What we know:
The structure is a single chain. This protein is an alpha+beta fold. Among the domains are: 2-27 and 239-442, Up-down Bundle (ABC transporter transmembrane region fold), CATH 1.20.1560.10; 463-699, Rossmann fold, CATH 3.40.50. 60% of the residues lie in helices and 14% in strands. It has 26 helices and 18 strands. The strands form 4 sheets. The chain has a 6-stranded antiparallel beta sheet. The chain has a 6-stranded mixed beta sheet with strand order 12-15-16-9-17-18, with helices on both faces. A 4-stranded antiparallel beta sheet has the order 8-7-10-11. Helix 9 (177-228) packs antiparallel against helix 11, helix 15 (342-394) packs antiparallel against helix 16 (400-442) and helix 22 (602-615) runs parallel beside helix 23 (632-645).
Amino acid sequence: MRGDAIHHEESPASKVALVRLLLFFMNYFAPYKKAVAVTMLLALLVIATELLLPQLLRSALDRFIAPAARMVAEQPGRAAAARLQSMDRRLFLPSGRPGCYFILPEQLRRLGDAEIKLMENSGQLLPEKYYAAPADAITDAVAAKYPALFQQAGAFNLIAYDKLGVLEKPDLMSLRKHDLQGLSGICLAFIAILSTGFILNFMQIFLVERTSQRIMHDLRCSIFSHLQGRAMSFFTKNPVGRLVTRATSDVQNLHEMFSALFSSIFKDIFLILGIMAALFILSWKLSLVCFCLLPLLIAGAAAFSYTSHNAFREVRLKIAALNSMIQENLAGITVVKAFCREWRTAAQFSRVNLETYRANMKQTVVFAIFTPLVDFTRVCAFALIIWYGGGQTLREAISIGTLVIFLYYMRMFFTPIQDLAEKYNIVQSACASLERLYLLFEEKAVIADSPDALPPGTLAGAVEFRNVTFAYNLHETVLHDISFTVNPGETVAIVGLTGAGKTTIINLLERFYDVQAGSILIDSRDIRTMPQAFLRRSIGLVLQDVFLFAGTIRSNITLGCAGFTDEQILQALAIANADRLVAKLPGGLDEMVTEGGKTLSAGERQLLSFARAVLIDPKILVLDEATSNIDPVTEGLIQDALDKILRGRTCIVIAHRFSTIKKADRIIVLHRGKVAETGSHDELMAASILYKQLYELQYKQ
């Protein structure tokens, strides 16, 4: 459809190698590499805080909530007895029973799963679990109150876990006061780490955004400067909307990629690697069981990334078509209403809107499949942890804290994977934008000053076209061997049918384009040997379509140059007969003007453009259809202003209205890119065929 044709350049097929794109982007990235390195360091510290929190939870469970000692009965000759003999005997607590010892949970976990199972099967490791309270005055008092329940072993008072419920609540709290103190310390550490993580996360995100905004600021400035320096031929080939998109939407895409890359993507990758390392350190067997689901998740993420990219691209194209249709119809609302096209336009919009809805629904289906897939994989991983890890916990191979921390880490593990898959579209879109910006900067259409270009001392204002040939493209020559001269102080009018090459002459004189053959001279000097800034300051140009910038009357006349006084501005307005216009405005020179000068009439805008040209006091004045769209009263003001403006200046007038050019010293008639006739109005009317036909077409009918 039409929208697809307009946005065909958004094709995902890359024309530029990724390495070249990255090297191009590094030019803007390099000045901030230290800031980026700091953001990476902060990201690692944030991840460290996130990984440390579950470890505190594990410590709280194993050391203070559910620490369980076991009784070991030494049986020489039995399996695992040698392993027990090799352990530090100071870690064993005497039980009061011959050949039996209490062993604390930290030491018990040093034994392998197979050894623990053998010891349980052989009766060396008894099934009862005990709570070991460090001996002091308080715990000794509780133990003395319940002598049948407690056993003293070294520096500990031990009680079977199933007997803890017999104790009175105050006694139980007294017995576990060390655990309560430890939990308080864990809680404070938890809060401290959370606070540190919050501060580090804030600093990292803020630094990423600030760096990203600076890079995008530099990139936008480069784009704008690059566009300002292009030749007019560049703007002929590239629509304004496309160039605006380069400096806005494409730069914003890069900003989103940079922010996602350093605030999310790298952090997600580091987090995944950190979680995997932590899980393998905790229990490599349980980790392998959990990660057996990883290939399924990776395959799903890859399928999601590919499918969602296509769906997302289709959504962008449909939205672009929708926006284009809205803009087009609102801009042409007068035509729509005048020809009663409301219902047809509404039907067309409904059709485009329906296509946009369907494209969005395709994207929704993709997300609706992928998100439950991640959740399903997560649930399966939890089930495996509970099945296998629970059995390991029951056999004392791993602690309850380790089991809980596995569940905690696996819950963390799936979130960055899902996030990475969703960020894939951002990266893809940014790569396409980066490619378009790269191609934009590769565009070398520019008219440069020659190295030895120097401005002349003064200008008399003589203009000469000497055997000039020019074509906008290779297949259509606009001017053929044009030659004519305009003497200093002379007014020459150029007339001809549409397409004869009148405006092209102005473009070449201003050096918006360079001639392919021949030369253009001012005071016998080729304009290519002059600085462009000097050339254009020496030529006052008044166009048919006057463009006023959003700002004030003053800023639109001076065009931002601060060297003009109010007296000079008012004098230029008076010469252009625009002083009465400014006098009636409430703000005078400081009256605000909307973009394009929509609050002013066409004639008022034209008068201001004459004042703009007069202010720079040019030696050469060029009028390109400057009176074609104004009323007779304003035309009278302009004709009166021209009588004052043209004194002592060389003037070239392009006009269709013969009332404007009758007073010209000479009239040049162009026909099919060639000089057909030259002379004054009376001479041409008497001897010319083409000029007389043009004149009669306008007046005799």
